[in-house]
Design brief:
Elements lengths: L1 E3 L11 H10 L7 E4 L17 H16 L4 E4 L13 H16 L3 E3 L9 E4 L4 E4 L2 H5 L17 H12 L5 E4 L16 H5 L19 H7 L10 H16 L4 E4 L5 E4 L7 E4 L16 E5 L3 E7 L5 E8 L5 E8 L2
Parallel strand pairs: 1-2, 2-3, 3-4, 6-7, 7-8, 8-10
Antiparallel strand pairs: 1-12, 5-6, 9-10, 9-11, 12-13, 13-14
């Protein structure tokens, strides 16, 4: 299983991360699964058919769909906050438009989960592993979303999601849970910012915009640390979601919980939780600063993805693959999960 997040702005001249994924996928396509961990289209998901930016959004998504389909590998997409129209009111429709395009472009090999903007969990049983997919943006979204009592989703309230997640993990199979938002992080979404982000905050908006704003520039990182956005670990809804998911993991911990969102590669181990994987550097030169926090085992801002090898006897080994500008992937960290 290859896990790659935040791949939604691939270089039109040839994306190094997608080239590296292609090489990995073709090693054993019949026994490989590719999972995109959300933010599949920057900046605002899939626009309406008549929108002027629709063609470019399709190009960005097609590049990801095609890398799996052309290799003959089953490919699964889950949504992120940018896929929900960057949290705007049209988000639910944007997610459904993206899902429809994935189905049209990818045919039988590509799938968008959970379906219809539902929160999940969506369960995919593989020979050696159960994959459990969540839409974590559903928990954080402040616009229209499917929810009780008016939705047709199998689960449409936090309590129902947690209950079904517990059931999915209680089946006794090795499981991997995937969602877009991490449960811990040493990056900006975890409240960790570099000196550059304090003194030159506009570089977060546009690289190369080195306008010094000392003092004023610190307002933005400080607001992020104190809960200004639910996209950050400090946000009120984010905290509630994480506590709910952590409670669901307590009785039957999965092999790991894998997410994107943070533009980093991280492996964290925290007491009482499964290994936490963050794989959010799905296109080249997209990394954010990352720092050691409690539980950090590995961290990097380099482009790349993660590879999880699972055998039918239940063993699981993780490799973090970093990708260079030429599209070559090399293992930078490896460990046994089980």
């Amino acid at each position: 299983m290859l896990l790659v997040g935040d791949a939604g702005l691939p270089n039109p001249a040839g994306e190094p991360v997608l080239r590296a994924l292609d090489a990995e996928l073709r090693r054993d396509p019949a026994r490989t699964l590719l999972v995109f961990l959300g933010d599949n289209i920057y900046p605002n998901g899939m626009p309406a058919a008549e929108a002027p930016d629709r063609a470019e959004a399709e190009r960005r998504l097609n590049a990801q769909v095609d890398v799996g389909v052309k290799a003959g590998v089953r490919t699964i997409f889950i949504p992120g906050n940018h896929d929900w129209d960057s949290e705007r009111p049209d988000g639910w429709e944007a997610v459904r438009r993206q899902a429809a395009h994935v189905a049209q472009r990818g045919g039988a090999l590509a799938e968008f989960l959970p379906r219809d903007g539902c929160p999940g969990p969506a369960v995919v049983d593989l020979p050696a592993l159960r994959l459990v997919a969540l839409d974590t943006q559903w928990w954080l979204h402040d616009g229209p979303r499917p929810e009780h009592p008016t939705s047709s989703c199998p689960t449409d309230s936090p309590d129902e999601v947690v209950g079904e997640l517990k059931n999915a993990l209680a089946a006794g199979r090795p499981s991997l849970v995937v969602g877009h938002h991490p449960l811990a992080s040493g990056g900006p979404h975890g409240g960790k910012f570099s000196w550059r982000q304090h003194f030159f905050p506009l570089t977060d908006v546009k690289k190369g915009l080195w306008l010094p704003l000392p003092g004023i520039g610190s307002i933005y990182p400080l607001a992020r640390k104190t809960g200004a956005s639910d996209q950050d670990l400090s946000g009120r809804r984010n905290k509630a979601m994480r506590l709910a998911l952590e409670a669901a993991f307590a009785a039957h911990p999965p092999l790991a919980y894998a997410a994107g969102h943070e533009h980093t590669l991280q492996v964290l181990r925290k007491p009482g939780l499964p290994p936490l994987l963050v794989s959010g550097t799905g296109f080249f030169d997209h990394g954010s600063p990352v720092y050691n926090v409690s539980g950090t085992v590995y961290k990097s801002s380099d482009a790349g993805f993660m590879r999880l090898d699972v055998d039918v006897r239940g063993g699981a080994r993780l490799a973090v693959m970093e990708v260079d500008r030429e599209g070559r992937a090399q293992p930078a960290h490896a460990e046994t999960l089980r």
